[in-house]
Write a structure and sequence with these properties.
Helix content: 25-40%
Structural class: alpha+beta
Largest sheet: 6 strands, antiparallel
Length: 205
C-alpha cells in the first residue's frame, strides 16, 4: 500500500476503488462481512482500527433502522489523536462513561455514510456528545487533517488505504464541513441531544 500512497491521493483513491471493484467486494463488506452477526451500535472492528505509528483511527457502526437516513447501512467515524493537539485547549473534554473506563483520547473530525450496497455516499460532522470526544476548534482540526493516516492499522489494507486517500483527496471539502460545523454550533450546547449532525456534503468520485 505504501507504493500506492507515494502517488497522488486521487490516483491512490481510484486505484484502490478499482481494485475493490475487480475483486467484487466494496468497502463496507470488507469491514462487516455479509455472513457476520452484524449488531447495531457495535464497533467494527471491535476495538477500532488504530494506526500504531500515529494513533489515527476509525470504526464503522450502524444505528437502529429508525435512526438511519433513508438508504443508509451505517457510517465510518474518523479520528485524529489528541496528542496531535498539544497546546490547544479543547472546547470540551470527553466524559467518562463509567468509573472504570476512561474515554479514548481522540478528536473526531468527520464521518462517512455508506448505503446498503456498501458504497460511500456522503461526509458529515457531528456534535461532541455523539462520539464523546475531545472537541477541538475547527481551525485547529483543519490544520491537522494531513496527519490522518491509517495505512498501517490492523485489518484490510484496502480499507485503510482507501480511507487515508479519501481524506487527503477530499481535504478541502472536509475542511469546509468542519467550518460549517462550528457555525452551526455557535451559541449551541455541545451536549444538546437534539443537535446531532451539523454539516454534510456528498462524496463524489
Amino acid at each position: 500500500m505504501r507504493s500506492l500512497l507515494s502517488e497522488s491521493p486521487e490516483a491512490t483513491l481510484f486505484a484502490l476503488t478499482e481494485q475493490m471493484a475487480s475483486q467484487g467486494t466494496p468497502l463496507v463488506p470488507r469491514v462487516v462481512p455479509p455472513d457476520c452477526d452484524f449488531r447495531q451500535w457495535d464497533h467494527y472492528p471491535e476495538k477500532d482500527a488504530v494506526s500504531p505509528s500515529n494513533k489515527s483511527r476509525w470504526f464503522y457502526h450502524a444505528h437502529p433502522p429508525e435512526q438511519r437516513e433513508p438508504g443508509e447501512h451505517g457510517h465510518f467515524h474518523l479520528f485524529l489523536p489528541l496528542d496531535a493537539f498539544d497546546g490547544i485547549e479543547p472546547l470540551a473534554e470527553a466524559k467518562p462513561k463509567t468509573k472504570d473506563k476512561t474515554p479514548a483520547k481522540v478528536v473526531h473530525f468527520v464521518a462517512l455514510s455508506c448505503n446498503t450496497q456498501g458504497i460511500p455516499t456522503h461526509w458529515f460532522t457531528t456534535n461532541r456528545w455523539v462520539t464523546n470526544e475531545y472537541f477541538m476548534p475547527g481551525e485547529a482540526i483543519i490544520e491537522r487533517l494531513d496527519l490522518f493516516d491509517v495505512d498501517d492499522a490492523p485489518g484490510d489494507p484496502l480499507v485503510n488505504g482507501w480511507l487515508t486517500a479519501a481524506v487527503a483527496t477530499f481535504r478541502d471539502q472536509i475542511a469546509e464541513l468542519v467550518r460549517e460545523r462550528d457555525t452551526a454550533l455557535d451559541g449551541q450546547s455541545l451536549d444538546d441531544r437534539n443537535l446531532e449532525i451539523l454539516s454534510s456534503g456528498p462524496l463524489d468520485l
